[in-house]
Amino acid sequence: MKRCLDSIISQKNSEVELIIIDGDSTDETLSVINSYSSDIDYVLSEKDNGLYDAWNKGVKAAKGDWIMFLGADDRLLSNALEKYIELISSVEINSFDYISAKVNYLDENDHFLKVIGKGWKWNEFRDKMTVAHVASLHNRSLFKQVGLFNTSYKICADYELLMRKKDKLSAFFLDEIIANMEFGGVSFSKAAIYETCKICNTYNSNSWLKSKYLVCRKLSEFYFFLFRLHIRRILQHK
């Protein structure tokens, strides 16, 4: 968490509000947060109903027009906030619902795996999370239009939120690498695949055959990536 906070605070200015929502941690998290108290604008620590419940609390507490979500293991790259601020200073960009960029995907030892994130296109997005949600920006107006995150989804509610407007979502792509995201966690799991497929089937009214094909395809991609990662680790240790 300390590296995440350092990456934000090192480039934070008067146009940036830093909000921390903690799920009533019993480890050293609160002491770390307290050590940065002069740079944090709002802290809430209480029991919640998972990640997206916490994010909903953050949306309600935020005062700005654009909202970014970072996990404790995510890190902004230098000048990331400056690039976003320059972008949204133009009048035209504020008509968009969502702004995304690219992210470095790193393993648990900070070794580079790949760059993730591409421009939003409904025909691709309807079947797969193609954008890098880490460090992307949500216009406050989007939440007013479609509501908050659905907490019945525990892993992919960020994807479900962006699906609600279907092809009417107005999205902008910043072709820059904005942050580092760490491999692992529930977002990279079979459970995440099943939840993603459930969302896809809901919004696309997929047939039984299409829904089964979707699961099989995503599971194949998942295991192929794990296989490639395993081979990479073997080669690194030779």
Give a summary of the structure in a few sentences.
This protein is α/β, with parallel strands linked by helices and 238 residues long.
Q: What is the CATH architecture descriptor?
A: Alpha-Beta Complex
* Shape annotation: globular
CATH superfamily: Spore Coat Polysaccharide Biosynthesis Protein SpsA, Chain A
Gyration radius, rounded? 18 Å
Low-confidence stretches: none
The helix/strand class is: alpha/beta
| Main β-sheet description | 6 strands, mixed
In CATH, the topology is named Spore Coat Polysaccharide Biosynthesis Protein SpsA, Chain A
How much is the average pLDDT? 92
Helix content: 40-55%
How many individual domains?
Answer: 1
- Number of DSSP strands? 8
Summary tags:
Spore Coat Polysaccharide Biosynthesis Protein SpsA, Chain A, 238 residues, single chain, two-stranded parallel ribbon, 9 helices, alpha/beta
What would you note in describing this structure?
- By secondary structure, the chain is α/β, with parallel strands linked by helices.
- The protein has one domain (2-236): Spore Coat Polysaccharide Biosynthesis Protein SpsA, Chain A (Alpha-Beta Complex).
- 41% of the residues lie in helices and 20% in strands.
- The chain has 9 helices and 8 strands.
- The protein is globular, with a radius of gyration of 18 Å.
- The chain starts with a helix and ends with a helix.
